[in-house]
Every structure is written in C-alpha cells, then in structure tokens.
From TrEMBL:
Alphabetized Gene3D superfamilies for the sequence: 3.40.1360.10, P-loop containing nucleotide triphosphate hydrolases
Database matches in InterPro entries: DNA_helicase_DnaB-like_C, P-loop_NTPase, TOPRIM_DnaG/twinkle, Twinkle-like
Classification via Pfam families: DnaB_C (PF03796), Toprim_2 (PF13155)
Name this protein carries in UniProt: SF4 helicase domain-containing protein
Start-end of Polar residues biased regions: 576-588
Domain of life: Bacteria
Length: 588
C-alpha cells in the first residue's frame, strides 16, 4: 500500500489502477471544489494536478521502511559509540621537546606542518612493557575533531593505546569527502604522506592485523565515496595479509598498491632514504590490481613460494577434536549440509559457525527465513555462546546478557530482503554488501528451498540448481568466504519392517547430484534418538590438505543447544561414551 494519505490525497478507497480525484493543494482556492484535477497512478505512486501543476510521488511501505532504516543508520553513524572510554585532549602537550622535534623532523623527515596538523604530542606515560614511566610520542586519534584514542610510542619502541578506548583509523577526519585516500600501516607512514601534501591519508590503528572490525563503522561514511584507494602498507608477510584484507573489503577495482622499492619496507623509510619527491613518484606509480580472471604464475609468485617452502597448511579448526580429526575448513569453499527434517541441521550449523567466529574471527551472515523471528535465532545463539539457558538467572547475569548481545551485534547479521525478494541474486548482493561493510567471512543459507526458484525461460530445474551452486561457489571464491548451504533430501521412505528411516547420503539431496559433485565439504547430520546421540557424517572433503571423509559423534544438550563430542559404545549399552561436556561461557 502506498501512503497517499500523508499527502492529503483521497484515493476513494481504491488501491490499484489510475484514478482522478480532487487536488488537496488547490481545491480550497477553486470555484468548483469538486473538480477532479489530480491524476493519481495508484500502482507506481505518481500524481499530477492538471490545474495547479502540483506533482509528486507516494512511496510504498517497503520504501518507507527502507528510508526509515537508512535514516536510523545515518543517525547511528553520526553518534560516536558511547560504551568506549574517551580520553581528554591536553593541548599543553603540543609543544615538543627539542629531542622529539629533532627525531621527527631530522630523523624521520616529517614536515613541521604535518606534525602540527596531526597534533602530535609528547608526555611521560607508564609503559607496561618496561614497568616504568617513559617519555612518549603521542599519536592522537581524532574523529570530528574530538580525541578518541592515543597511541603512545616510547624511545624504546614500547607501544600502548588508551585502555577501553575505541580503535579508529588514524587521521580519519582527513579523508572525509575526498575522492581518493591512502591507507598506511602506521602513524609515521601516514605522517610521511601528509608531509608530501597528501592529507587524505589514514593509518590502520593496530598495525598489520587483518581483523579490520574497526573499519566497519567508517565504510559507509568515509570509504564508500572513494574513487581510488592507495594501499600503502608494509611489504613484509604480515603487511601482505593486511593488504589482501583491505583490498577484499574496499574492492579490488578501486585499490592501487603502492610499492616502496628495494630496501624500503614502508613509506617513512622511503621518505627518509629518497625524499619527498620520490615518495610522490611511488604513489603515482602505484600498480592496479591485476586484471581479474587472468593470472600467470608471476601474479601469485609470493603465495606460490610460501606454498613451496611451507607446504600445504591444514584449514581452520572448530575445536571439536573428533570433527577436526577428519575435516578442517577454509575460506573460498562451499559446504553443503543435509540430513532428515528435524535432525538438527540448523542447530549444528549454528554451533559450527559460532565456533569458527570465536576461534578465527570469521563473521557470519545468515539468510535463514526458517529461523524467524530473528530474536528467536539470537536466543538460540546466545544459549550456545554462554552455555546457559536464555532467561535471567544466577549464571545468566545482566552483564553476560549485554556481552552476548554485543557479540552478536559485532559478529552476526541476518539478511532478510524487503518485499520478500528471496532470489539468489538479491541474497548474494546483500551478502556482497556485508563483505564490504562488515567483513563477513561466512554466509549461511538455511535452507535452500526458501530461495525463490526463478527459472529463466527454457531452463530446466537441473540446470537452475547447477547454476545456483555455481553462483555460490563463485561468491565463496571471489569474496573469500565460506558458504554453507543447508539442503533437504528427497523424501526418505521408512523401512516397513524396522520402521527406521534410512540415513541420508549426499546423492539423496533433492533435485540434483550436483550437490555432491560441486560441494567442497559434504556433511550429513543424523540424529539417533534411540541412542541419544548425533552422528555427523563427513561424506566429502574435496581437498586432501583439509581432511578426508569420516564420522564424528556428539551428544546434543537440549538446554544450551551445544554438541559435545563423544564416542559410540556398541556393547550391551549402545549409546554415547566418554562424552566431553563443555558448559563454559565461551564469550569471556
Ligand atoms: N539431537 C537432538 N536432540 C533433541 N532435539 C534436537 C536434536 N537436534 C535438534 N533438536 C531440536 O529439533 C528441532 C529442529 O532442529 P533443527 O531446526 O536444527 O533441524 P533441521 O534438521 O534444520 O530441521 P528442518 O529440516 O526442518 O530444517 C529444534 O528445536 C532443535 O532444538
């Protein structure tokens, strides 16, 4: 329904088609107050008065909801998060000692104007590494001109930041509304580029750490408008990882890589060795990310050498020893999970992704209409995270509740497209947005049959499923994500003699053998209520460095939804044995 009412337009109780009605703008001034001079298209929302020329557009409910959400989002973005400690800026520390001034200007070759612009200060500060007070250069992190954090750096190269203060990019105000920006790996490198006149430079706050959670808040406000982003981080192995993640988050098509030449690992070293003009040349010669889809061994030479020297590493572990023994996980892969209805596919996938998130900081996006309303799903996830039932009681304190909500806010999002547009294109386009804005690493689609099946003309269902699986694999590869697809099996008939429904196999998945063929990991969840246990069949692990087929058994805890590893005893008492219960709180 479109909101014509807020424009004062009387739609004569019609909801579709075109109508003519009186114009609320000019009606009172007209001699014939009943003249229906306003044409209204109830379908597309447009209206026009043929008398006074008043025209406009009435949005529908979805648009209104989206606008409201966008406004709320913008407002939230403008408010600095309140749960962080905010230090107070003391301008009396701005006058630097002769020694520090000498170090910054003559040793590090920074211009005085850059030092002033960045409001670098100096003070004595207790440094935990030495256990005593040391004289420090203070790199102050401002946002909207307000001090948000400070990095203290002593002469002995001890570092610390303000306790409980927010991590934000250094000099973030410098890139507001600019068309380009430079991203460096340290404050001195940022100051080097500012020295050569590029105030549009930020530094990552925590060195070559590839967890870029601090970036999320700034993507829509400070990075989305950039045409070119120069990645000017260190050229060592940690810097390469950081570079890779920055490129993934900011988009390869607009990133250019700055190289500092032989013998220089970063921007400041280059400035010191070769001077400002030469650093400017490095920027001008920054290379584009190689043409997508065309590779030579030279394009991947560093990765190839690392593989040659170190061999294939296993993938990410889940912390379930009986599962990790067979299967470890990797980004850029597609996992398909099946099992009989109600056997616990969603429950098991939830725990799997929570474990990966806790251990490897892989943030999660769900498309899971079955888990609606979202708060029911949050409840289940909080039970798994805390190991406790979801209601206020002695263990589940208010503080733990708040911590859990914060964890979910930071690490889990749900994709629920407006207008119930559940097509694969829409879901993947939202997921793409979440890779950029929130750095998600896992996309869960649970279950497949809730995706709208839109068969283009002439396409068979088999071809449709094959192309859908291709889209998911492509998404996983391109956006460095683990994609997990939950798919139901065909109808499994009970054995009329034993009354038992047979266990599902990957080839039983409804619709196509491609589910088995195209999966990198094929998992079947089997709930055995008779024995009080759950079997996880690892039916396929495509790459041998990640594992091989096998089976892991678990006991399901109905209170907190956790899966505890166990062995299967087959003697007189068939059922779980040696169960490794774990009801600890995982968040702390
Ligand atoms: N091993 C188990 N023992 C007891 N209850 C379980 C077990 N596994 C799952 N459940 C419960 O069964 C219900 C269904 O679980 P879940 O939604 O994970 O199954 P599913 O296989 O994804 O189902 P569907 O095929 O309908 O999507 C949930 O309420 C869950 O808590």
């Amino acid at each position: 329904m479109r909101d014509f009412h807020s424009f004062g337009i009387d739609t004569c109780r019609r909801t579709a088609g075109r109508i003519k009605t009186t114009c609320p703008q000019c009606r009172e001034t007209r001699r014939n107050k009943r003249d229906k001079s306003l044409s209204v298209n109830l379908d597309n929302g447009k209206f026009l008065c043929h008398h006074c020329g008043w025209k406009g557009y009435a949005p529908d409910e979805t648009e209104l909801r989206e606008r409201r959400q966008k406004d709320e989002y913008r407002q939230r973005m403008h408010q600095l998060p309140s749960h962080f400690h905010r230090p107070v800026f003391d301008p009396t520390h701005l006058s630097l000692s002769e020694k520090t001034g000498h170090y910054l200007v003559l040793v590090r070759c920074l211009s005085e104007s850059a030092i002033r612009y960045l409001q670098i200060t100096e003070q004595e500060e207790f440094m935990p590494q030495s256990g005593e007070k040391e004289n420090c250069i203070c790199f102050n992190y401002f946002e909207n001109g307000e001090l948000v954090n400070t990095k203290f750096r002593s002469g002995q190269k001890h570092f610390k930041m303000v306790k409980d203060a927010e991590l934000i990019p250094y000099n973030i105000d410098g890139i507001l509304n600019t068309s380009e920006c430079i991203v460096t790996e340290g404050e001195l490198d940022a100051a080097s580029f500012i020295t050569i006149g590029r105030k549009d430079t930020v530094s990552v706050p925590s060195g070559a750490n590839s967890n870029l959670a601090w970036l999320d808040r700034f993507i829509p406000t400070h990075f989305e408008d950039k045409k070119t982003v120069y990645i000017a981080v260190d050229e060592d192995s940690a810097g390469l990882k950081l570079r890779e993640e920055l490129v993934r988050r900011l988009g390869a098509e607009r990133c250019r890589i700055v190289h500092f030449g032989p013998g220089c690992k970063d921007g400041n070293e280059h400035l010191v060795k070769y001077g400002a003009d030469s650093l400017g040349i490095c920027l001008a010669q920054a290379e584009e990310i190689p043409l997508e889809g065309v590779f030579t061994a030279d394009d991947v030479s560093k990765e190839l050498r690392a593989l040659y020297e170190n061999g294939m590493a296993g993938g990410a572990e889940t912390g379930w020893p009986n599962f990790d023994k067979y299967c470890t996980l990797e980004l850029q892969r597609l996992m398909i999970v099946s099992g009989r209805p109600g056997d616990g596919k969603s429950e098991w996938v939830d725990e799997l992704v929570i474990r990966l998130c806790l251990r490897h900081e892989w943030k999660i996006a769900y498309f899971s209409p079955e888990n609606m309303p979202i708060i029911y799903h949050h409840r289940k996830l909080i039970e798994k995270l805390t190991g406790l039932g979801f209601n206020p009681h002695i263990g589940m304190t208010e503080e733990l509740y708040e911590q859990s909500v914060r964890f979910l806010t930071d690490n889990v999002c749900h994709i629920l497209p407006g207008d119930e547009d559940y097509s694969i294109d829409t879901i993947l386009s939202k997921a793409r947005g979440l890779v950029v804005r929130r750095g998600i690493r896992i996309l869960v689609i649970d279950p497949l049959n809730r995706i709208d099946q839109r068969l283009p003309q002439g396409q068979t269902e088999l071809q449709y499923l094959s192309s859908l699986l291709n889209s998911l694999s492509r998404f996983a590869t391109h956006y460095h994500c683990l994609v997990i697809l939950v798919a139901h099996p065909r109808k499994m008939n009970r054995n009329p003699v034993t009354g038992i429904t047979p266990c599902v196999e990957m080839y039983d998945i409804f619709g196509s053998s491609d589910f088995y063929n195209k999966a990198d990991f094929g998992i079947v969840v089997e709930r055995d209520d008779k024995k009080g246990m759950v079997r996880i069949h690892i039916d396929k692990v495509k790459f041998k460095h990640l594992g091989s087929p096998g089976e892991a058994t678990f006991v399901y805890n109905v209170i907190n939804g956790r899966y505890s590893p166990c062995e299967e005893s087959t003697g007189d008492n068939p059922g779980p044995a040696n169960t490794q219960f774990d009801n600890k709180n995982w968040i702390s």
